[in-house]
Amino acid sequence: xxxxxxxxxxxxxxxxxxxxxxxxxxxxxxxxxxxxxxxxxxxxxxxxxxxxxxxxxxxxxxxxxxxxxxxxxxxxxxxxxxxxxxxxxxxxxxxxxxxxxxxxxxxxxxxxxxxxxxxxxxxxxxxxxxxxxxxxxxxxxxxxxxxxxxxxxxxxxxxxxxxxxxxxxxxxxxxxxxxxxxxxxxxxxxxxxxxxxxxxxxxxxxxxxxxxxxxxxxxxxxxxxxxxxxxxxxxxxxxxxxxxxxxxxxxxxxxxxxxxxxxxxxxxxxxxxxxxxxxxxxxxxxxxxxxxxxxxxxxxxxxxxxxxxxxxxxxxxxxxxxxxxxxxxxxxxxxxxxxxxxxxxxxxxxxxxxxxx
Length: 357
Hints:
Helix content: 25-40%
Order of helices and strands: HHHHHHHHEEEEEEEEEEEEEHEHEEHEE
Number of helices: 11
Number of strands: 18
Largest sheet: 13 strands, mixed
CATH topology of the largest domain: Jelly Rolls
CATH architecture of the largest domain: Sandwich
Structural class: alpha+beta
Radius of gyration: 25 Å
Oligomer: single chain
Number of domains: 3
Strand content: 25-35%
């Protein structure tokens, strides 16, 4: 999604952004953080929009009569203001029609959020604060959510124990992030990279891992996820059951049984398959397995595994693959083993490796 030209109004009017602010369960905060990292000039707009959405949460405390009054006054104000900076298309996106809606019509909360928040930008936040009567006290601004983050550099692996007692093995070059002490109605985690989870059962608090385009929900389950590339996520279920769903709006989901894997590509296509547990779990035991693996992929694996960088001199054949199983081997020994079949020479200079085909 391209947000390079978004205004504050665009953020407030986007339902996915609103859901992400009001509930960490509805949208992966990592998704929005990724967009803002690519568009740092929009961080201030997003911050302002977030404050507006949090203020609008007060609307949930209104009575039905209050909501109808809010809806009517919002429409009267926007439609009567010919100098309003928003164009007709944006008004339509906000849920307005060219003709006024009867105030007795039923109003849904998403409409109230979008329309009233956009009006805030035009006439000021103080007007919204007084919509439900001057006698009401202002609701205190929610405290910012505190996150715990584990970020591993290449060449390092770690075993973690989560606040609920669940176990996580985090692979090199991976990042795991979650709300401190799981202070929400679910145990929500955000993963970049690769990890293995052993989930402690808690039927009242689902365990959900958000990874790029997929979310995985499990109770009393063990599973592994590989998501070094956000658009290529793989979930492998080892025990129990898990629900895998997309975060991109395709409304795709599937139930996994033991020994089944789910994946989704950049086009939003979700597939189910079988997998070999030994291959998927090898990294947790210090074992590297290449099975007709493209040489470029193998090189990236070794870079992440040993914390080194490779320089390829001469371009390898596009169909060149390598195979082998290496149990806690030194990098030099692995390269020597691969060099015979792949026909390359190599030299190791501290944290840099040069390969010549």
